[in-house]
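Q: Sequence in, structure out?
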Amino acid sequence: MYMTKKSFNSKGFANRIVIAAVVSIIVITSIAATLYFMSSNVTNIPINGTCTTNDFMKFYRETLKNQTNKYLGKVIHYSISVGPKPPGSKVDFNVMGYYYDPQLEPVKEIKMEIYFHDPNKKICKKIYEISSFSSQYTYTLGNETNVYYIIVIKVINYKGEIVDSTASLIEVPIQEVNAKLVSDKRVYGRWDKVRYCLVNEGSTRIEFGLDYYVYYYNGTGWTVAEWLGPGIVPDIGLIAGPGQVKCFELYLNGTKPGKYMLVKEISAEGVKDGKRKLTLEFEVAENLDLVKITSLTTQIVSIANTFEFKDKFQVLSFLICTHYTFRFN
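A: Exactly. Output:
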């Protein structure tokens, strides 16, 4: 057996040392930049002064990245305001329980910061700050509308380090409710189904459920048409955003002819006194179904004459084969 020994290449060894040093410098630089970014608490985003809504939302997203999930939600149980609110509302952060964990450094204080943004004026600024170790932190929003707020919560230990944080976005919308109910037609037959839609024409989100009420006009006033009620419906919350349309169906089930009114309750998120009752009136005709039958008969006769069919069975076969769709007026 023979053993071979490679000669030492000093030039190659030196090159490998240089490459390793460069890689180490890059890694150390990246780590330092990351630590600096986290410690600076995204101050590189222009949040005090002129900024756009995109800047403000970017600040919100970057703030959420500072969450460690070591304290909040684990040893600190809390609730925080979020979502659309009317102007002048109170928003808060509540500590519902704090449990000591010997593996974690004790908490010295919790800091609450409030940031404000006006899209029209392109203003972004910090408007409130408080540090303490309390069970409740509260702030009252201003009277401006079409504005945004960000609540930032920071958990700080006795070394002054931020060991956990969270944030929530508050929107104060324009105070309007602009929604309506529309239907596919005005007059229905007794066995028809009413297809109706909720149309949100405003700038605020509309909340509503599956329930509704139907009233019948008895000649002197409106009375509840219990036989057309929804019965037991699941407690499901639905939302129609700005410009959205949500459609539903109401089966008439042979109801008596007359005037009817469908009523649906809605509420606008973040709008003070934003509850509304939307109404839709329609009529049920006695002989409308006969009109449809007559119309169908007329179409069958017309088809038979045009194509010179001998009997109604040939007409029906023609309709099935061609997927003819009847359209009633």
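The chain has three domains: 38-172, 179-286, 290-322.
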